[in-house]
Structures are given as C-alpha cells and as structure tokens.
Design brief:
By secondary structure, the chain is mainly alpha-helical. It has one domain: Glycosyltransferase. It contains eleven helices and four strands. The strands form two sheets. Strands 1-2 form a two-stranded antiparallel ribbon. α2 packs antiparallel against α3.
Length: about 325
C-alpha cells in the first residue's frame, strides 16, 4: 500500500466519524440541495470497506467506496481520485444486469433476521445510490452511458416488490421503498427509504428527470406525522417495522442518521414537520439518558435474537 492509498483510507475512515461528531441538523456549507450540479452527498457514507468472503464487496460498500473517492476528488482535485471514482462506477456497473425492470444490482447475501433465501433480491438504497453515482459520473465525464444507467436504475422503484421491484405500502398506506425487497417479508427500513428519497432527488435535479421527480414526490408524501410517529419510541427511533416480527430498535448512530436524513429532506422540500421531527430525533441521539435506554434496548434485542447469528455468513 503506497502513501496516497494509506492517506485515502485514513480520510475515508475519519470523514464519517468527524461528521457524526457534528450537529446532525447542520450541513456542510458546500452542499446545495437544489443545485443541478451534484457535489457532496447529503448524508453519511461508510469508511473504507473491506472485502467479504471471496474478496467481494457488498454492493452498498462498493457505492460507499465510490462516493468516498468522489468526495476526495472534490476536496483535493486529485486526478487519481477522479479516475478511481470512475473505475468504481465501472466495477459497480459490471456487477449489475439489464432486464425487463431496467438496470439492477442483484443481492445474494443473507439478511440478519431472515432464513437463508435462494433467490437474489434488490435493494432500494443501492439502486438509488447507483442512479445518483451514475448521474455524478455523467456530469464529471460526459459519458451518455452513465446518463442512461442513472435513469434505468430507477426502474425498480416503479414496480411492487412482488414483481421484482422495491415499492411497497407501509401501514398507513403510503409508498415505501424497501431496502430488503423480498416478497411477503417487508421490513420497512427507515434509513433505506430516506436514502432512496435523496437519491431520487439527485437524479431529478441533476438530469431534469420528471419520472424521478414524480417518484420522489410520491414517497415524500408518505412521511406524514403519523408515519413518523410509528418509528418514534419517545427516546429513540426504530430501524424497521414488521407485522410478523418484533421491530428492530435503532442504535444511537442510526437515530443520529435518521435525524440527519430528515433534516436534509426538510431542506430539500421545505416541509416544516420534517425539520421539527429531525430536531426531536437529534435530542434522542445526543441525550445521555436516551442513549442509555437505546443501548439497553439494542442489547435486549441482540440477546433475544442470538440464535439467528450463527446462520449468517
């Protein structure tokens, strides 16, 4: 590993950690949520991902690595970071396939809390990230193939989960984009839904895509007070929901992420109730009493589900 690679890894590790020390409602002044030119990402990204079994990276980690390279290019102007970003886009694209749904990134790993499943599945967060990243690649390099891929990756958002898409209905009847899009086993993962919304907005504003804007508006309407109440524990948030199983409590980190995501969507949409809820969830993530209750909840959940983990890869 050369010095530049080591520096990039350290920066990729530090950037999200420094961000999480900040107020989740305060954004980097370089982020302009209505600009047609896409820049820094609205929310969080992971650190430098490590390969899983067989040397592969999971699709969401590939996306995180790509956005980290893109951020490094924006921050330093280094051509090597630019080229590595485009190389990551090529690697992500090579892992996908075109079918009647459009361009899809298939997932085959087992999800915590599920029995092993034989069929591949799609992930709304990843499909959104891929569209958003391809829109950035198009703006950066001008390759029309990236433009087409950005639009094609959104095809699954128009289809219900039962038909191989990611669209479902949450308990209040609103459109919900599923992170774990497995028919009959929806979990309504909140962070995945909110991330999808921001990616749809990226494509809508960068490409002037009316389809992406319509999908964004439809799902944004789902974020009513009643819907958000169903994720609010009064001291923390829920990671997901399900009629068949006990919902997963969000960690302190994910409550912070939920607050930041809602605050970003409030800035985009001007919806005051989203900003107000983000402020409440920020308080949950920063209050030591709420943090203590949250950690106890998460520990109890882990103990109850300890039998699940030996089945995971």
């Amino acid at each position: 590993m050369n010095a530049q690679e080591l520096t990039f890894r350290v920066q990729s590790w530090r950037r999200p950690r420094l961000k999480r020390q900040q107020d989740p409602l305060v954004f980097d002044p370089r982020i302009e949520p209505h600009s047609q030119q896409l820049g820094f990402h609205h929310c969080y990204e992971g650190g430098y991902p490590e390969p899983i079994a067989g040397g592969r990276m999971r699709p969401i980690e590939q996306c995180q690595l790509a956005i980290a390279q893109f951020h490094a290019y924006l921050e330093t102007g280094a051509q090597e970071s630019r080229e590595r970003f485009l190389e990551q886009i090529a690697a992500i694209v090579s892992s996908g396939a075109h079918d009647e749904r459009g361009f899809v990134i298939p997932h085959d790993h087992v999800i915590e809390g599920y029995e092993p499943h034989q069929r591949t599945w799609v992930n709304a967060a990843v499909q959104g990230w891929v569209a958003s990243l391809c829109a950035r690649a198009y703006q950066l390099a001008g390759d029309e193939r990236h433009l087409a891929l950005a639009r094609s990756a959104l095809g699954v958002f128009r289809l219900p989960v039962e038909r191989g898409g990611v669209q479902a209905r949450e308990r209040h009847g609103g459109t919900f984009f599923e992170m774990y899009a497995l028919a009959g086993r929806s979990r309504h993962v909140l962070s995945g839904m909110l991330s999808s919304l921001m990616s749809l907005w990226d494509v809508a504003r960068a490409l002037g895509d009316a389809d992406a804007h319509a999908l964004f508006a439809e799902a944004l309407a789902t974020l009513t007070g009643a819907m958000l109440d169903s994720y609010d524990l009064g001291y923390s948030t829920l990671y997901d929901q399900s009629e068949e199983r006990r919902a997963t409590p969000a960690s302190v980190l994910y409550t912070w992420v939920h607050a930041r995501q809602l605050a970003a969507l409030a800035r985009i949409s001007g919806r005051i109730h989203l900003a107000a809820r983000a402020a409440v969830w920020k308080d949950y993530a920063t209050s030591w009493t709420c943090q203590l209750r949250t950690r106890v909840d998460c520990l109890r959940y882990r103990i109850r589900h300890v039998a699940v983990y030996p089945r995971l890869p």
